[in-house]
Amino acid sequence: MTAKFTDFITEIFSIFRKKRTFKLGLYGPPNSGKSSLANKICEDWTGEPLSSVSQIPHETREVQQKEQVTIKSGSKSLTFNIIDTPGIATKIDYTDFLKFRMSSKVAKKRAMDATKGVIESVKWLDNMDAVVVVLDSTKNPYSQVNLTIIGNLAARKTPVLVVGNKIDLRKASIKKIQSAFPQYNVVGVSALKGTNIDGFYKSLFRLVK
Amino acid sequence: MLSLQFVPSYELASLSEDDKMKKLLSYVKANNIVVMDGRLKAEEEASLIKYTMGMINNKFKGIEIATVNPNEKLLQGLSKLRINIASMLLGRSQGLTVIGPATIIKDIKKNPNKIQLFMKRRG
Question: Closest Cα partner for A58 from A81, A76, A35?
Fold first, then answer.
């Protein structure tokens, strides 16, 4: 009788465990490829992209979310809410956008929206079950923004996977990112070309298991 | 005119997080490079970014921030212990924080022993 009751309780808990949805945030500096990676994940598992992407910084100026994305790796599957956040920066200069043939009015509006996006990103840090920090592997990883993001996640004890994106580019160096953040698992990908995306999914499963 | 503003950690210790951020940013907006002993906590750095974003306009474009810690790998045995005890007794974190206006500081490069400030060339 007791054994049957225990089995029943275990089954009930396993149902809830299977249905658990992880809030997975994609964080990083502007133009590191957060939206490209979010799109790759969503296209792979739902057939639809999540965010628009652009070479112009601060393309994502509002938090974008795709709910109930079930990812499979081997025989296991996990369900995520994928949350693509605006790039975090300490400065935003509207004149930087003028180089992309934007009018002054449009550039100023974009800069204003981008500042609100950064504030929103920081606020969302408290809501994540796990975070993928997306860094541009062609750039110096020791920026204050990267340190602040990782420091805040560590302070909140949020599980973190560091992704070095753009590994298809000549200047890419995953080793630099690994030496900057030795306490984290670092996986190199090209979100745009899909390089090592299976390696990314495996690392993601290890992160939230 | 650009000037360096040294902010001792005790000057900020009694302030609320909001007041601390407002004070730091008031110095930076007045074209000062703030040099602060100790480090901001990770949460305070995030808060500083939020406040900075709220203040950005056509003139104030944001901040550059760098924190420098003594290289722990170089500190061993008694030296490390001495610094840790001193920090604990004085109630402050190690290192140095430098915050400046983004329009003026082109880059803040760090190494364990010195900070180089590269000023934006004008004209």
Answer: A35
| Closest CB to B102 among A91, A148, A155 | A91
Query: Model confidence over A130-180: pLDDT tens digits?
Result: 999 999 999 999 999 999 999 999 999 999 999 999 999 999 999 999 999
Cα separation, B52 vs B63, whole angstroms: 7
Q: Write down the domain spans for chain B.
A: 3-119
Instruction: Answer whether A152 sits within 8 Å of B58, measured CB to CB.
Output: no
A206 to chain B, any CB pair closer than 8 A? The answer is: no
Q: Does A90 contact chain B (CB < 8 Å)?
A: yes
Give the separation between CA A43 and CA A50, rounded to whole angstroms: 8
ipTM of the complex: 0.85
What is the set of domains in chain A, with CATH numbers? Answer: 18-208 (3.40.50.300)
Token pair of A154, please? 């560590």
Separation of CA B86 from chain center: 20
Query: How far apart are the C-alpha atoms of B56 and A77, rounded to whole Å?
Result: 44
In angstroms and rounded to an integer, the radius of gyration of the C-alpha atoms of chain B is: 15
* CB atoms inside a 10 Å sphere around CB B91: 10
Q: How far apart are CA A139 and CA A2, in angstroms?
A: 60
B26-52 confidence digits (pLDDT tens): 999 998 999 998 889 999 999 999 999
Q: Which residue in the block uniquely carries the two structure tokens 């910084």?
A: A57
A170 touches chain B (CB under 8 A): no
Closest in B53, B63, B110 to A119, CB measured: B53
